[in-house]
Amino acid sequence: MGPPVNLTQADLNLAASITINLGFLARNFYDSKTLDVVSAFAGFYNTTPNATNTEILTFSGARPRDLDILLEMLGRREFLRDSILWLDAVADRLPRMPGSGHILVPVFAVFTVLTTIIIALRLWSRQTIAGGVRAYDWIMVFGYFMTLVYGSSALYHAVNINTASQFWDYSWNEIALQQIFYIALDILYPLTALTIKSSLLLFYYTLSPARYLRWSVWATFGFTFATAATVVLYSIFKCHPVNYWSEWYTSTCDPHQTIPYLVTGSLMILSDVIIWVLPLPMVMKLQLYRRERIAAVFTFSLGIFACIASIFRLKAVHKYFLTSGGTGKTPIINTWTIVELNLAIICASAPALRALCIKHVPKLLSYGSDSTDGSNSNSSGGSMNDRARKNTRSVHGRIIVHHDQIRPSDMASLRSGISRTGSGWSDVEKSVHYSSTSRIGSPV
């Protein structure tokens, strides 16, 4: 079998098949690159062209049943020899490209630093402004650590394992380790996304006692949980046995794996969209000034960026999943996954960050001047004592008081002076107006 002048895609696929099957067979060479195993076998056949099964087993360290299965698939023992000699002859024409793991390093570093800062600011905002960290905040923190685990695992895989783009540049031990990482990451991604979405849904659940909202939250959670569970179960059982790399010749896998991942990926994007638009009808019903309404809608709509990242990830899955001849494009999928998960955390923390901005840099959000509006103070707070007056200011006709500037004894007189007290607001209005700000009665 003479080498072709130019290797076609079919030739490359055949080369990948030979290297990976020979790599699994030759247990004495599990730490050697599979193309080096081909070279060693070529030397063996050059000196022993009519090698018997016993001689092949002794040289390769293969299990007898593995050799029997391989020879049965090939049809004749000579085909094994001829295939190896052909591949050895064209070895210098095979592409030898590095993996694409380098693109993941800066993305992971930047988003890890950014998301860590955002989570820290979120917790600071909740603790100092909202009166404490809530359950949905702790769920988001857990989601942050899961995102960190996913990113760290993907980074290790990209830098230390996925160093090439073709099977013939890996040893069998490296190929087997890659399969383990693939399953682990395929399972970790939907679980992490589910955790982040659960935090958001619990946050929405506490916004208002409205029945339609709470039923919507439960329905969305059920849909999200079912989608994530489907991805996890499929990732585990798409091959039989689960550790299919230990029985490469006899294991069976779904030949159309891309389709289920595309379908479930689309469903996950749908759940993203539902979750991010869920609070918008409530916000639109609030009695807000135009600028406040725009700010509130913008805050709750930031999740669109995470949805966009999900779409790019799905496109990468469609393009690079089960790439013929190698695995070098996997880090591209992992990169978009890291972007998606981190953006989801960042966007979900926007209300808490907005609260910090309102408290510490109100001019940045155009919340009026720091000067006290005497007319508003006099009309709305006639019974307010002098100390409370000094610590109030008018914002769009409303009285703003920082809770850390008021004594408990001032609370009654202050509340009697505010035209619309905290108890008069709905939970949704509190979330938008006070949005975890320094105003009295912050519910979030």
TrEMBL record:
Low complexity: bias regions: 369-385
Keyword Transmembrane listed: yes
Record region (Disordered): 369-389
Listed transmembrane segments: 103-124, 136-159, 179-205, 217-237, 259-282, 294-312, 332-353
Subcellular location: Membrane
Gene Ontology CC: membrane
Record-annotated Rhodopsin domain positions: 121-357
Entry annotated with the keyword Transmembrane helix: yes
Membrane topology: Multi-pass membrane protein
Keywords: Membrane, Transmembrane, Transmembrane helix
Main location as per UniProt: membrane
Pfam family membership, one: Fung_rhodopsin
Highest taxon in the source lineage: Eukaryota
PANTHER family: INTEGRAL MEMBRANE PROTEIN-RELATED, PTH11-LIKE INTEGRAL MEMBRANE PROTEIN (AFU_ORTHOLOGUE AFUA_5G11245)
Family of the protein in this entry: Belongs to the SAT4 family.
Identification of the protein by name: Rhodopsin domain-containing protein
Species in which this protein is naturally found: Arthrobotrys flagrans (Nematode-trapping fungus)
